[in-house]
What we know:
Blueprint: E1 2-6, H1 12-23, H2 33-38, E2 43-48, E3 53-64, E4 67-75, H3 84-99, E5 103-108, H4 111-115, E6 120-122, H5 132-135, E7 147-152
Parallel strand pairs: 4-5
Antiparallel strand pairs: 1-2, 2-3, 3-4, 5-7, 6-7
Coenzyme A (COA) is lined by residues 22, 27-28, 71, 73-75, 80-86, 106, 108-110, 112-113, 116.
Amino acid sequence: MYKYRHAKFSDVEEIYNLIASYASQGIMLPKPHSVLYENIREFVVAENLSDKKIIGTGALHMTWNELAEVRSMAVHENYKRQGIGAEIVKKLLAEGIEFGVKKFFTLTYSPQFFQSLGFTTTTKETLPHKIWKECIECPKFPNCDEIAMTLEVD
Length: 154
Ligand SMILES: CC(C)(COP(=O)(O)OP(=O)(O)OC[C@H]1O[C@@H](n2cnc3c(N)ncnc32)[C@H](O)[C@@H]1OP(=O)(O)O)[C@@H](O)C(=O)NCCC(=O)NCCS
C-alpha cells in the first residue's frame, strides 16, 4: 500500500537520492539539497506504508499565468510500472487545476509515460521564454535533448 502526500523536510534526503540515482545515468538533472529545501512545497511523494520509504516523487512548478511545469518525476527502479508515477502526476494536476492552471508542460526523456496521461509533444519554442531562465543554468544548455510536452485543461 502506498500513500501519496506532500513532501516534508524529513523526506529531502530520500528525494535527493531518488533523483540522484537517475541523474547519474543522465536521465534526469540532479537537484541539489538547497533547491529541494527551497521548493519542498512543490513536491508530492509516494510512501511505501510497509517500510515508510519514499519510492516516488514529482513536483509542480508554477511558471507563468495559468501555466505550470510537471518536473522531477522519479519512481524507484523496483516500483516502476505499477501506476505510482501516474498517481503522482494526477495529484499534481489536480492541485494545479485548483490554482487555476490551464496548461501543464514537461520536459522529459519519458514521452510515453506523459503521453499515457494525455500530454502531447510540442516544440520548446511554443513555451514562454520565461522557462529558459532555468535552462540557462542547465549543464546541457543549449544542446537540450529533452522532449517538450503539454496538456491543456478546461
Ligand atoms: C517516468 C517514470 C516516473 C514513470 O513512473 P512509473 O510509476 O513507472 O509509471 P506508471 O506505472 O505510472 O506508468 C503509467 C503508464 O505510462 C506508460 N509508461 C511508463 N513507463 C513507460 C516506459 N518505460 N515505456 C513505455 N511506456 C511507459 C505506460 O503506458 C504506463 O501504463 P502501463 O504500465 O499500464 O502500460 C519512471 O519510469 C521513472 O522514474 N523514470 C526515470 C526518471 C524519468 O525519466 N523521469 C521523467 C523525467 S521528468
